[in-house]
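Q: What would this chain look like folded?
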Amino acid sequence: MTADRTHVEWRAWGPAPFEAARAADKPVLLSLTATWCDSCHEMDAETYAEPRIAANVNDGFVPVRVDVDRRPRVRERYNMGGFPSTVFCTPDGEVITGAGYLGPDGMRQALGSVQEVWADRGDDAGRVPRALAGDPTPGGPVDDRIEAHLAGQLDEQWDDRFGGWGDDAKFPLPRTVEFALKRARPKAVETLRAVAESLYDDGDGGFFRYAAGRDWSDPHREKRLVDNAALIRAFANGYLYTGDESLLEPVAGTRSFLVDRLWNGVAFGGSVAPPRDDGREPRRDRTGYAGGNALAAEALLTVTAYTDADAPREYAERVLETLAASFLDGGVVSHIHPDDVGDDGTDPPTGLLADHARVVAAFATARQVRGPDALSVDPVAVARRVADEAIGALREPEGAFRDGPTAGVGLLSAPLRPLDGSVEVAEALVDLAAVVGVVDGGGDDDGSAGRRSDDYVDVAHDAIAAFAGDLAAEP
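A: My prediction, written as structure tokens:
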């Protein structure tokens, strides 16, 4: 990869840069960025564009640039608490040290310090994060304590003054809202109203990612597909539980935003960056990602189920057809649409847990909302194939799921078993079990259709049980 406007000779993620680092006896500088991340572009302009810094990076390190949306498994292993993330690694991919945004002075200091550590300790300076150490998950019984604990957190973490949960930056937390609609409805509705007032873009539609202020002030104006899809569903469910039609207003505007600003002809793109000060169009990531599109399809079908609106249904079905035709190879889900892979010579990620969970949920929802014949494919058959692939390839003996294949350079070969991923796949499998029970007449078949309804419920139960022994550590 040639030098760009930053003067740094960035290389694409893959085996080659790590092999080059080993051969040259240099550490790796890993830069994690995103199209929607203003601070990432600011660091490029202020830090990496400084000629002496760029020369030091090129001479003393092997620099690797990673788009965190395109490679989420790299993101989860090397994230330093936000983006940009600046990570120094050994040629084996172990972490020497890392930081977030670094200005020119901070970068000069970091480069010098890491070079000294590398000269003194070499590979011994690296470490593997604890989450990747392979320790057993904290298993326990799945009983009423879990729901009671989570319901208690709705009260304990609630911000009485400004609404929402937490006393720092405010994220919309759509899944928390959906749980609260059942257990603390006034808090859920107050949060939805705060999100609509502070994070919804009245001009162009769509929701901003979060507010930096506890009082929902200072919104960060990037808009990501995954956030907007989840909020469409949360607001639609808010309408379902309250009958308040005003909660559907941001739903309609956000659907229009998805179509007008993110639709790339076959699927929804990943994000729109904040408006630029110079008046130019905001940066847009038009890449079609499997998980984000599956979330969007499920959300739009949820709106369809509650309102009988045609536009959400139309785009949900178009997305589902694209997922089935272009993202699936048997039951394996490709993270990126094949037309968006790029030409950097590296293979796109496949078989990621989050993508599988979301695709299963989307096609199970399609069967519930639209019946068996609305698509050119059987939605239950698609959901089953994808679910069975995830269970066969990513499930571990104790029931937890890995986030993807245990293969790849750097820390990708270390298993990561995310709690949120196991919860997401468990929820999708319960949804699938419901429709499989209908299709199979209760689940007692001759085995020709694959796993029975009860099998999916059992797998979902075990995925939750794998983490149920450590409630206090997971607020």
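The chain is about 50% helix and 10% strand.
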